[in-house]
Specification:
The complex is a heterodimer of chains A (532) and B (439). Chain A has 532 residues and is mostly helical. Chain A has a single domain (16-525), classed as Up-down Bundle (Cytochrome C Oxidase, Chain A), CATH 1.20.210. Chain A contains 17 helices and no strands. The two termini of chain A are 38 Å apart. Residues 1-7 of chain A have low confidence and may be disordered. Helix content of chain B is 35%, strand content 13%. Chain B has a five-stranded mixed β-sheet, with no helix packed on it. A five-stranded mixed β-sheet of chain B has the order 4-10-9-6-7, with helices on one face. In chain B, strand 6 (198-202) and strand 7 (207-211) form a beta hairpin. The termini of chain B are far apart. Classes of the chains: A mainly alpha (532), B alpha+beta (439). Chains A and B meet through helix 3, helix 9, helix 10, helix 11 and helix 12 of A and helix 2, helix 3, strand 7 and strand 9 of B.
Chain lengths: 532, 439
């Protein structure tokens, strides 16, 4: 991929040991990205089984309990295995190059935070082969249902602890890098937006991953050590789990989307050949979203019977999030406005992101209205909502980012025709997959159902077909990546005509240690975000 | 008034146009139902209002994007402008969404205040969620009963079932004993659960309230129109989550009173062995719940429960008449019922299919994946009878304490059935008196 016989480290090991012992930000970024791609297909395989069972009413393929296991693992693997590691991988690759640093600030911890992950997921996935099966209480792991899990229970919780440790270490590393290793002259308000978004995301991670660890540890105590945190008969409260879980869970939603905002804010200006509109308001919008994410958690729990005052408070704060999110969308549209647009694959994914994420945002506003939420809650309307923001939101941003930076990483251009096939198949099938889910939810189909009344059959079949096409289309993504790593047209340092930023001043592929000397001040001043 | 009529007309136009779009193509309406309670109408209006607001914003935002995509293309020779901020416009597009949100929040808050006002009800019903059934407890009238998935849906939903779900009327939306409510009365629902969290949802009422063990939630309904309304559990509650539907029958006050009187006599259809019909012409005995016919005060011919099972003709052989009104929420101890092997086995099969098969499976092979032991050749049904009775009565681990749920006659029947079916040949015939003694 890049020059491994780098002069600074002539003796670094080769073969598998290179990857196990590496402390290089690019190697670790590659490991993160490959791991997340693998998990994307594992979680995707679970989703394919779910959609196959739901193709017809009645149970055809699996026991209802196994269906619940699939739904649970699909959620856990996609969130903690696919989306989060992909963003950390992008951060590893890009942040040192974007702030003008040689590497991440804490390279040894970087190695460890990645290598925890494969073990965490081996633990989690091994529960499929345990007596009693994998966890089947949903990725939200609500007590008391989760306490009915068999042998898998402590393994699942330990796996979640490991994922949390990995995320927190990754976040500490990112904060340390951004705050300490910026090139002279790059003030905070001159940082690329991807770096800003990740800085704020990293603080969210440090704040909430321990909360999740606490919640699942309390479940562990209830099951094995006789405590009654979530057992009403012992003086506890099952709702305590939900409050603690969603205090993690809502910021987690933004952990999975703020880096995506950063990516889109890099791609759209490049292919509009125009500076990002409203840089300052973008930074403040991300910061406000991050703050608000801590005071909206109970909107996941409107049906649990909270007092009226709590329902009103969480409804208003949730609706408030639409304001900074709206500002971001308007800024992206204003960036495109009167630009000189071209539509290479990264831009296609970015435009699809703005369209489809906004649709997810609309259903989000509708879900915030408590009385209406009583009808939407726990139905396919919600499933449609969060897949619009997580698949056509986060996952599309990740795919856009991969196409955007792949020529920089490998030194080769990817195959644009194949990539466009990947985009168009994905964007069409993903809407066939998720859009009818709105109707299913409104008509009364609950989520997490292994079987459903026959009147929902035709729409479920459309959804399943969309799902299968979307799943198969992702093989094209893998093909694009493999072909690009192996060869292709030579990429220039500045891959895209409109690209601005320090990463494009390095050759493609970049040297093993990105900036061994600070970049010249005039390169930073040429950055698109300067205000003067 | 005018505004209200206009709203009604608008609602009708929208509903019919959506039905028109969906009618020929899909089996369901593509929109939320308007429902049959004042609250469900308000919620529908709020939903449509929010929907049109989103459509409006979408047209503006997506329209501007499309204009850019079409006209501001490099390929079309467009030269990029270089502006990158404008304080005035940024302030405007922060304030406008804020105003739109306030315009959404005000009606939403109004409806919410109304929805949470459960004061001054005409009557209350306690609803308790179990894995995987509902219990309805009519507090003022002193009776309660369980409501489980209808036998035909249950049979068709099995993994190896030869029955097609399409052949079952109201597949997964039908129960053995529905909840019955009077129309035009404000009914307070007190919702709780026995084991894990469930959620009681009937879309036509716009009521979805979580049933949480150890806590009681409240909601209220006032049904305008007589009819049968169907819903389901909407919170993941384990293996049987898809298989615990809700059916509510709303009827006029007089019919409702007749139903209450009949229920008080039988104190719960679920536990009334008096309706058990004897074997006839060699066909299997069918449990024919006379209470299901709500509009007739006297027992009438009943619906077949399983499509494949022939219905026994009603015949006048009730052996007992249990007239005791039981205290709310507690199982009734049926009076001196005596089973014969044949009646116990027949009733036992019904009790097993409705209650035990969800975990122990219809073929009695258990569910090792869930840690549920087999009945077929299992150690408990083939072990000491006293231990078997104790386990069923008091439960263990995820096995519920059925002593709190089933009455003595049904417990005796199902234990007899477990010991003499699925290849087990213990030969015991358990009598209700034995269960009573073991309690």
């Amino acid at each position: 991929m890049y020059n491994t016989a780098d002069a600074h480290h002539p003796e670094h090991p080769s073969g598998i040991w290179r990857w196990i012992t590496t402390t290089n930000h690019k190697d670790i970024g590659t490991l993160y990205l490959c791991f997340s791609l693998l998990m994307f297909f594992v979680g995707g395989a679970f989703a394919m089984l779910i959609r196959a069972e739901l193709f017809k009413p009645g149970m055809q393929l699996m026991d209802p309990l196994f269906f619940n296991e699939m739904a649970t693992l699909h959620g856990l693997v996609m969130i903690f295995g696919a989306i989060m590691p992909a963003f950390v991988g992008l951060a590893n690759w890009m942040i040192p190059m974007m702030v003008g640093a040689p590497d991440m600030a804490l390279p040894r911890m970087n190695n460890w935070s990645f290598w925890i992950l494969p073990f965490a997921f081996i633990l989690l996935l091994s529960t499929l082969f345990m007596p009693g099966g994998a966890p089947a209480g949903g990725w939200t792991m609500y007590a008391p249902l989760m306490l009915q899990t068999g042998t898998a229970f402590p393994f699942t919780i330990f796996a979640i602890h490991l994922m949390g440790i990995s995320s927190v270490m990754g976040a500490i590393n990112i904060i340390a890098t951004i705050l300490n290793l910026r090139a002279p002259g790059m003030t905070l308000m001159k940082m690329p937006l991807f770096v800003w978004c990740w800085l704020i995301t990293a603080y969210l991670l440090i704040a909430v991953m321990p909360v999740l660890a606490g919640a699942v540890t309390m479940e562990l105590m209830d099951k094995y050590f006789g405590t009654s945190f979530f057992n009403a008969a012992g003086g506890g409260d099952p709702l305590l789990f939900q409050h603690v879980f969603w205090f993690f869970g809502h910021p987690e939603v933004y952990i999975m989307v703020l880096p995506a905002f950063g990516i889109i804010s890099e791609i759209i200006p490049t292919f509009s050949r125009k500076p990002l509109f409203g840089y300052t308001s973008m930074v403040y919008a991300v910061a406000s979203i991050a703050f608000l994410s801590f005071i909206v958690w109970a909107h996941h729990m409107f049906t649990v019977g909270m007092p009226l005052s709590a329902d009103l408070f969480f409804m208003f704060t949730t609706m408030l999030i639409a304001v900074p999110t709206g500002v971001k969308v308007f800024n992206w549209v204003a960036t495109m406005w009167r630009g000189a647009l071209s539509f290479e694959t990264p831009m296609l994914f970015a435009i699809a992101f703005v369209f489809l994420f906004t649709i997810g945002g609309f259903s989000g506003v509708m879900l915030a209205l408590v009385p209406a939420d009583w009808q939407y809650h726990d139905t396919y309307f919600v499933v449609a909502h969060f897949h619009y923001v997580l698949v056509t939101g986060s996952a599309f941003a990740i795919m856009g980012a991969v196409y955007y930076w792949l020529p920089k990483w490998t030194g080769h251009m990817y195959n644009e025709t194949l990539a466009k096939w990947h985009f168009w198949l994905s964007v069409i099938s993903v809407n066939v997959l998720y859009f009818p889910m709105h109707f299913l939810g409104l008509a009364g189909m609950n989520r997490r159902l292994p079987d459903y009344p026959v009147q929902f059959t035709d729409l479920n079949q459309i959804v399943s077909v969309g799902g299968f096409v979307f799943g198969v289309s992702q093989l094209l993504f893998v093909a694009c990546i493999i072909l690009c790593v192996r060869g292709g047209k030579k990429a220039e340092a500045k891959v895209w005509e409109g690209a601005l930023g320090l990463e494009w001043t390095l050759p493609s592929p970049p040297p093993y240690h990105s900036f061994t000397e600070p970049p010249a001040a005039n390169l930073i001043w040429a950055h698109p975000y300067q205000n003067d | 008034m005018l505004q209200k009529n206009f709203k009604k007309a608008l609602r009708g136009v929208i509903a019919s146009s959506l039905t028109f779009i969906s009618g020929p193509a899909f089996a369901i309406d593509l929109n939320m139902p308007v429902g049959v309670t004042p609250m469900s109408h308000d919620v529908y209006d709020l939903h449509m209002y929010a929907f049109w607001v989103c459509v409006g914003i979408g047209i503006v935002v997506f329209g501007l994007m499309l204009i850019s995509i079409i006209w501001h293309r490099k390929a079309a020779g467009h030269q990029p402008a270089q502006f990158h901020e404008n304080t005035v416009i940024e302030v405007i597009w922060t304030i406008i969404p804020f105003i739109i949100l306030i315009a959404l929040a005000i009606p939403a808050s109004k409806v919410l205040v109304d929805m949470t006002n459960t004061s001054d009800p005409d009557m209350s019903v306690k609803i308790e969620g179990y894995q995987w059934k509902w219990q309805y407890d009519y507090l003022q009238d002193g009776f309660s009963y369980f409501s489980t998935l209808a036998a035909d849906s249950n049979a068709a939903s099995q993994l190896d079932s030869k029955l097609s779900p399409e052949s079952v009327p109201h597949y997964l939306r039908d129960v053995d004993h529905p909840m019955v409510v009077p129309t035009g009365k404000k009914i307070r629902l007190l919702i709780t659960a026995n084991d894990v969290i469930h959620s009681w949802w009937v879309e036509d009422f716009a009521v979805k309230v979580d049933a949480i063990p150890g806590f009681v939630n409240q909601a209220w309904i006032k049904v305008d129109k007589p009819g049968t309304y169907r819903g389901s559990c909407s919170q993941l509650c384990g293996r049987g989550h898809a298989f615990m539907p809700i059916v509510v029958v709303a009827e006029g006050w007089d019919d409702y009173q007749k139903w209450v009187a009949a229920m008080q006599t039988s104190h719960g259809a679920f536990i009334n062995p008096a309706t058990l019909q004897p074997e006839q012409n060699g066909s299997p005995v069918v449990y024919a719940p006379a209470e299901l016919n709500f509009n007739a005060p006297t027992p009438a011919p009943t619906q077949p429960i399983a499509a494949s099972t022939p219905v026994a003709a009603p015949s006048p052989t009730p052996t007992i008449a249990a007239a005791e009104v039981k205290p709310a929420g507690k199982p009734t101890v049926a009076a001196a019922k005596t089973w014969t092997m044949a009646t116990a086995m027949a009733r036992g099969k019904q009790v097993f299919d409705a209650n035990c098969a969800a975990c122990h499976m219809a073929d009695g092979k258990g569910n090792p994946a869930m840690g549920v032991p087999a009945i077929a050749a299992g150690p408990i049904p083939n072990g000491a009878l006293a231990a078997h009775i104790t386990l069923v009565l008091h439960g263990k681990g995820i096995m519920p304490a059925w002593g709190n749920i089933l009455d003595d006659a049904d417990l005796a029947a199902v234990i007899t059935y477990e010991r003499n079916s699925f290849g087990n040949h213990q030969g015991d015939l358990v009598q209700p008196a034995q269960i009573k003694a073991a309690r």
